[in-house]
Design brief:
This protein is α/β, with parallel strands linked by helices. It is 31% helix and 21% strand. Strands 1, 2, 3, 4, 5, 6, 7, 8, 9 and 10 form a 10-stranded mixed β-sheet that branches. A 5-stranded mixed β-sheet has the order 11-19-20-12-13. A hairpin with a 6-residue loop joins strand 19 (590-594) and strand 20 (601-606). Helix 1 (155-161) packs across helix 2 (166-178), helix 3 runs antiparallel to helix 4 (317-354) and helix 8 runs parallel beside helix 9. The chain starts with a strand and ends with a helix.
Amino acid sequence: MAAELVRGQNHALSEHRVRITVSAGTPVLALAALGDERGAVTGPEGIAHPGASGLPGVEAPGGSADRHRFAVDLDAVAAEVHRVGVLLSLPPGGPARFGAVAASHVAVTDMDGTELAEYTLTGLDAETAVVALELYRRQGAWKVRAVGQGYAEGLAALFVDQGLTAPAAAELAARVHAGVAAPVAPDPVVPVSGSPYAGTPGPAPTPGPVPTPTPSASADTTISYAHPRRRPASTEPPEPAPRTAPAQEPGQPPRPVAGDASGWSMEERLYNQVWGMFEDLARTVAAYRGAVEFADSRMDRELDEALSDPRHRLGGSGNAARDTARARREELVAQAQAVLDRDLVQLIAESEVVEPALPAAYARWDNPVWHGRSAGLPEENPLALRLGDLYLPERPDLRIPMLMRLPLERGLWIDNGRTGSEAAMTMDTDRLRRAAMDMAVAHAVRLLAVHPGDRFSVHVIDAAGAGAASLAPLVRAGVLAGPPAAGAAAVTETLARLTKRVDLVQMAVRAGAPEDLPPDLDTADQLLLVHDFPHGFDDRAVTQLRYLADEGPAVGVHLLMVADRDEASAYGPLLDPLWRSLMRLSPVPDNHLADPWVHHAWTFEPDLPPQGSRVLEQALDRVAEARRRARP
């Protein structure tokens, strides 16, 4: 029996040689896009369309028609192909939008015609092009996912989202609509929405590679799991991912393996694997919620029909109709729950092997990687940093590491106020403020410990000295760039010093002469930890802080603020750009973050050292020792 998919739902494929069949209410163009693990095509030549020849493993679809049928051999696609997307587009001269015609239906069958999965593209309106579904490789097995992502701007916009530049996308869309084949030189690939490879070559930070969608009403920040940087082109192949272990029993999914993702190093593969787990959990929960919503709406409709039928108002037929509607609803929900449970079991198994394998930058504070005295500082900068855990109410014990790429492209704001958070409102103010500062210090310690000893410096502004207890481990270890700045004069001096550094580096970079920087300039990345803003800040200091938040990340000066926005309300809208530029985090569990795919409200829980643990002191001891050894 074929699996009837709803948007976002996936289903395992039992066959690798399949046929894609499309039935539409009007003539449409069908295409196939071959992408890497994040969906990026190599160029126009990575898209099979009516005006082009087929690709390895994928038969070229025919021209505009209301029915299409083409074969895909997943064993024959190139090794770097991890996704095969099925695209549909309305041809010129046809209907103006998909919402004006009957819903298209896409099915995946085996070579004998037996349906394996099917999906009806409902809910489209102004769209003229759509990614209907995709076949994707996950942990060595192939699955099919119902996507249903439409584009009102047409096929060119869809191609841009697949990784083509705008000029190449427009040219290819014109040729597809004309049905004319023409040789096309390979074109540079731009980041796919949500791609972990988004960014430009080299270590310099680039503006957010995951386009931030409008957050949901209950979530005020969208999480970007984009990769810190795209690697430059190389003739050397990436380091191969470890082979997936065989299934314990025939017919069972393969056992998860840590690092089962693409990447140039184990660290990068683990980063990509966490990103994939995050997406899988988001989409499987979206499918479950969508199925429950459908079951509820169907039951409501059937109950309304039963109540509106005069024949059901007499006798027991009305009760029977209501019981039948409720039973159907329970059956649909049970089916959706079974699929959700199946996917969650697999994700939990993957989490259980991934979590222990994470490097220090990604690992929880209770991970053994933090507790070995022999562990020294790394020789290279990390790709990302763990800020905490994310989870959904359907399975609170399944935690996905929240990793933020490095170098930080936006500052962090730990909110020690009580507005907008139910958990914060139930907490004593002093405890909340202490928890926020402890969280900030833990992040600063982690950043120091996962960078080489001479490549990261931390400055602290604590104008009133209220954070002294939390800052004590940093001060005792002697790893700060200077004593915490207390009082208005020290605040002014610290901000002026960092502002001058930003100005000097910017001028050197623009002049193409970084070697002309003053010899005494600290070229390490700088973190400014600000506690109790705006206490101790005058108007000039506020302006300098905004400048550092805007211009600092591009030249290695980053901001970590612990503040209550209400306490800065006297500045009015002047500070709105500052708050918007920072990623807000809560020191208590709070569901203010959204994913970039389906916009679930995820609960964020900070990662803090275990109660009574000396892990921070041990990490700082290693930092201090590494710096002593590095001194001439």
